[in-house]
Amino acid sequence: MGSMFRSEEVALVQLFLPTAAAYACVSQLGELGLVEFRDLNASVSAFQRRFVVDVRRCEELEKTFAFLQEEVRQAGLTLPLPEGALPAPLPRDLLHIQEETDRLEQELRDVRGNRQALRAQLHQLQLHSAVLGQGHGPSLAASHTDGPLERTPLLQSPGGPHQDLRVNFVAGAVEPHKAAALERLLWRACHGFLIASFRDVEQQLEGPVTGEPATWVTFLISYWGEQIGQKIRKITDCFHCHVFPFVEQEEARRAALQQLQQQSQELQEVLGETEHFLSQVLARVQRLLPPWQVQIRKMKAVYLALNQCSVSTTHKCLIAEAWCATRDLPTLQQALQGSSCSLSLAGRGWRVRASLKAPAISLVCLSACRVPQSEAGVSAVVHRIPCRDMPPTLIRTNRFTASFQGIVDAYGVGRYQEVNPAPYTIITFPFLFAVMFGDVGHGLLMFLFALAMVLAENRPAVKTAQNEIWRTFFEGRYLLLLMGLFSVYTGFIYNECFSCATAVFPSGWSVAAMANQSGWSDAFLAQQPLLSLDPNVTGVFLGPYPFGIDPVWSLAVNHLSFLNSFKMKMSVILGVTHMTFGVVLGVFNHMHFGQWHRLLLETLPELVFLLGLFGYLVFLVAYKWLRVTAASAASAPSILIHFINMFLFSSSPTNRPLFSGQEVVQPTLVVLALAMVPVLLLGTPLFLHREHRRCHSRRRQQPDKDTAGLLDLPDTSLASQGSDEEKAGCPGDQAEAEFVLSEVFMHQAIHTIEFCLGCISNTASYLRLWALSLAHAQLSQVLWAMVMRAGLSLGGEMGVAAVVLVPVFAAFAVMTVAILLVMEGLSAFLHALRLHWVEFQNKFYSGTGYKLSPFTFAVEGE
Amino acid sequence: MLEGAELYFNADHGYLEGLVRGCKAGLLTQRDYINLVQCETLEDLKIHLQTTDYGNFLANQTNPLTVSIIDTEMRKKLCREFEYFRNHSLEPLSTFFTYMTCSYMIDNVILLMNGALQKKSVKEILVKCHPLGRFTEMEAVNIAETPSDLFNAILVETPLAPFFQDCMSENTLDELNIEILRNKLYKSYIEAFYKFCKNHGDVTAEIMCPILEFEADRRAFIITLNSFGTELSKEDRETLYPTCGKLYPEGLRLLAQAEDFEQMKRVADHGVYKALFEAVGDGSGGKTLEDVFYEREVQMNVLAFNRQFHYGVFYAYTKLKEQEIRNVVWIAECISQRHRTKINSYIPIL
């Protein structure tokens, strides 16, 4: 939990990776997922980087993989998920994988090409036989009978030289959607010097490329003359028709047809063999591909990470800059040491050197690295370097805290080492939710639902479910669990279970005593629809209910006004407490960042302002609850009037003072609170301005010393502890040099206005607790009265009632879940979220950081 | 047409307009060009293009990369987008799209006829045809021997048919006649397109008419320039000028009389084209007239995106994308031929 309070210390480390070991080291780091690499070559475009060739090789492989995968998918098979640990392959393994892949690809392409060719051939044969056999048999017969008739006049008209002219044929098949256009074009181009007959092929043929069945159209064109013939051929070419030789004699055609059928049968056998072989190749792909894909993906990631490194001047090692949690530094060293073991075989070693701000760690590093350094000449170094950039935020979560951290991060990832609101959110969020959702029954249902999820969380079926809505609920199961639990608690406070009060303890009010004391007669009772219980009569009010609201209130007509008063005051009390807590949390920020002036100039005025005005209001509420008894209720002073008068510096004669000395306390508080506004507005800017001036003048006095410090900076390679300190001091100077008074003023003015106005509007905003809990209670009451009670009072006879209650209860249950649990729950969740993000977190949390996203091979969501 | 496209435009064409604007945002920026120019090999170029909207469009190329592969693939991508727009369009936008394809169809027909004249195989030429101007009967073009043949047999069913009215003649198709045919076709095409836009009215007319006027005038200038020193008579030349431009009628008449570049420049002296001719560099160093016209076209097309609710964005996007393809191809050519001195003379799209 220590790490929950604020984000972990993250250091910028420089890794000197010997060129030969760089790959192994980075791949090891990827397995561990400890460090986030910084891009040192941001100005270099993607294709000018060092390892672009390797990346390209991986991409080539991935391209081949994609081809193989697509083939497998087209064959209707699926790739199994890879199993076991698959480290990034060594460069020499890559060659092996590449070879294998190329071979597989070649084989697959060959087989596929073969199959394609065979299919095309088969298609051709089928079309041919369709053209010959089907379709034009009758038309040909017809043309045979018509032939002489048609031919005679035509033959006669041209006369002598064309005696030997005979009808020629072009037969073929065309895709159906082109048939009409072809027919028209033929007609237009050849002006009727031909007779064309088109016919659909009876059975559908599979296309050789797509494998989709299509109905082709066969055609037979009879024409005279060579010119026309050439034209027709050109046209049929342009429509990509399949044209087949067409013999005129029917016997010859029949023989050809038989031959064709035989051929196609043989082809089909060959095709079957090819398919068989293809499935064998695919099975091999299925077995080999998934692990390779993972490995090559890792390899590419490693090279991309290496591309972010810069090269040392001697070209002996790569320099990487990375963010790493200081807690993980020893692991990092160990990991690099592990990879260096394999390295030492190659006659190399590595060294870790760390220095600067964290002397303890640097000592560890130094001692850890000395030994291998003495063993080998070339060294790999982990080097901690100072940095002006804000480090990334790292907060480790477990499955319980993850959802709460998620709520905070959704608003904004915290600045580095800022106070993290998540640990408090674990309690306050479910509590504020429950205040709005207070109902024992509903809370219990929610709790049980969440509990079921928590108990089943290790089941693989639940874990791997892909449904997005389900996943959302599942991620927040611990949040739901606590929300349900707290709702049960507030439900007991409100004394509501599905909107009905429960009398766990005997009520503190006695109707019998009232009846006896005031002597209600039967006639009086019959006349009066409403009776009032007077707590001042002895024996009527025996004392407060032990826990929560007295169940007798659920019978009272003024139930609502009583609850409203209670819930409104409770909301204000909770709100002021929550906000004060937020302001107090700011103290830890100021202390941690060493901004002590802000404690005095910001937190203190803020606290005085908040507590002086609204803290006093809370005090008034509590005081009145405790001090005003039932006896003096009639003449009880109004808090509202008092509070308004406080700001007007007046008093109303009709409103009795709550306590003695109130006339003095109230104006003092207001004056004090208002006096804090200028302090808040001017304090920090003026203080910073003075600091800046002092710093400036001091620097002018000792310019020589400063330049000495600057001269020390370049030799960082052998930098001593002392010069590091000077260096650490430097950023501060730099920051002060950039000090602009007007900007600071503006910033502080905005902050002041926001805080002061925010105190009022945020307090009012907490009234949503009251409003939503009221809405929830009313809605559940309506549902109970309109559905369940109506159903219960319906049946006179036993059987009827039983039958009617089944659908009535079903309706009640469905509406309870849909409206009260899901809809109301979501709305209460949303409001609780707002109260945390806006009202609570703006008191101390800036949320302008960014997350540490380590370089890791782990797949998201696993 | 009704005025006030704001009221009803989105009902029919809003989706496509949104889409085309999104596509326009994917055009290569100045920064991309700077990176592309730095490339050493075509592979580098490919890697850089992968980071842009082109994505993995070259990923499935197994053969070594050539400029023509890049060109074809880029055109294919444009074609895919265009087909998508066209398939989802309603009238009158779909007619607008048909008009847009017509110019490519004319080019393809002429290309095929030239090929037939030089006895090249159809397949060889088909590769060079622009995919946007493809149509089924295209390949049968070479069976025609006269323009009327061409019309009657092949083009009568295509959208090009109406443009043929002026070009029906029984002349044999030799090289000059084909060129004249092309220009006549283009003239009637651009006039018809202009009329369509004008009749459509509204913002579409306001945007498209200037673009088409410019296109018409550009053609007039180019025809004049190309006719110097050929056997084309001045009267014939005048019949080829599209008459919907800003030069019509006086400018065209003067242009018909022009005999060299200087005279042509003088024609442009008074109108909007003065600045363009002034930008033309002389001799080796400066820009060519063609480049200047392209720049102007790009400028007009980019400006078309400043107005909403009109069809001009589709035209402008296609033209800009074409210019982009020309640019990338130019850069790729320079890279592959190691001719880096002129690599920067692409036309940036603003």
UniProtKB/TrEMBL annotation, chain A:
Assigned protein family: Belongs to the V-ATPase 116 kDa subunit family.
Gene Ontology BP terms: vacuolar acidification
Keywords: Coiled coil, Hydrogen ion transport, Ion transport, Membrane, Transmembrane, Transmembrane helix, Transport
Function, in words: Essential component of the vacuolar proton pump (V-ATPase), a multimeric enzyme that catalyzes the translocation of protons across the membranes. Required for assembly and activity of the V-ATPase.
Keyword 4Fe-4S among record annotations: no
Lineage summary: Eukaryota, Metazoa, Chordata, Craniata, Vertebrata
Record field: transmembrane: 431-456, 477-494, 540-560, 572-591, 603-623, 630-649, 669-688, 769-787, 799-823
Principal cellular location given in the protein's record: membrane
Subcellular location(s) of the protein: Membrane
Gene Ontology MF terms: ATPase binding; proton-transporting ATPase activity, rotational mechanism
UniProt membrane topology term: Multi-pass membrane protein
Gene Ontology cellular component terms for the protein in this record: plasma membrane; vacuolar proton-transporting V-type ATPase, V0 domain
Organism: Tursiops truncatus (Atlantic bottle-nosed dolphin)
Stated name of the protein: V-type proton ATPase subunit a
The keyword Transport belongs to this UniProt entry's keyword annotation: yes
From TrEMBL, chain B:
Record GO cellular component, one term: proton-transporting V-type ATPase, V0 domain
Pfam annotation, one family: vATP-synt_AC39
GO MF, any single term: proton-transporting ATPase activity, rotational mechanism
InterPro entries assigned: ATPase_csu/dsu_sf, ATPase_V0-cplx_csu/dsu, ATPase_V0-cplx_dsu, V-type_ATPase_csu/dsu, V-type_ATPase_csu/dsu_dom_3
Keyword terms, alphabetized: Hydrogen ion transport, Ion transport, Transport
Entry annotated with the keyword Zinc: no
Known function: Subunit of the V0 complex of vacuolar(H+)-ATPase (V-ATPase), a multisubunit enzyme composed of a peripheral complex (V1) that hydrolyzes ATP and a membrane integral complex (V0) that translocates protons. V-ATPase is responsible for acidifying and maintaining the pH of intracellular compartments and in some cell types, is targeted to the plasma membrane, where it is responsible for acidifying the extracellular environment. May play a role in coupling of proton transport and ATP hydrolysis. Regulator of osteoclast fusion and bone formation.
The family this protein is said to belong to: Belongs to the V-ATPase V0D/AC39 subunit family.
Protein name from the UniProt record: V-type proton ATPase subunit
Source organism: Tursiops truncatus (Atlantic bottle-nosed dolphin)
